Amino acid sequence: MSRAAGGASRVPLDDLVRLRRARDMMDREYAQPLDVTALARTALMSAGHFSRSFRAAYGETPYSYLMTRRIERAKALLRRGDLTVTEVCMEVGCTSLGSFSSRFTELVGETPSAYRAREHEDGAALPACISKIHTRPVKGGGAKPQGEG
């Protein structure tokens, strides 16, 4: 059983419903300036309770979850190759190129520039839903299918 699945059983169901609302907001509005206070407000919780409950339910902090969404989107934009790394950084809602590059490198295992420069044809024929599973950024570098690790 994953940490998130085990943790979710300790979070009350009504809290899980509100946490899902905030998580869905992060999925939809990842490029907007989102902070814990705004997300907690969406979940009708205090910032502290929201952060603790989110981590218990999903196995990572709200910030980590949001950055993973942003890096997933950044990877797709970088594969297209028509935007600079700086443009991609801003497009996904990051305001610091240095922080974006550091987080990208941590999760993907290579710099955004190196990722953009290399060939990406291997996954081109895969449906997006399958490709997403195999290219999800995972802390520590590289990507693993969800559920592994």
**Assembly context of the chains:** single chain
* Beta strands, count: 0
What is the H/E string? HHHHHHHHH
Largest sheet: none
Strand content: under 5%
Our count of helices gives 9
Distance between the termini: 11 Å
What global shape is seen? elongated
Unreliable spans are 1-6, 143-149
Name the helicity range: 55-70%
pLDDT averaged residue by residue: 84
Query: Which class of secondary structure composition applies to the elements?
Result: mainly alpha
Computed CA radius of gyration, to the nearest angstrom:
16 Å
Write the SSE topology:
Elements: H1 3-8, H2 13-28, H3 36-42, H4 47-58, H5 62-80, H6 85-91, H7 97-108, H8 112-117, H9 128-135
Task: Give a written overview of the molecule.
This protein has 149 residues and is mainly α. It is built from nine helices and no strands. Helix 3 (36-42) crosses helix 4.
What are the defining features of this structure?
elongated, disordered N terminus, 9 helices, 149 residues, mainly alpha, 62% helix
Short description:
This protein has helices at residues 3-8, 13-28, 36-42, 47-58, 62-80, 85-91, 97-108, 112-117, 128-135.
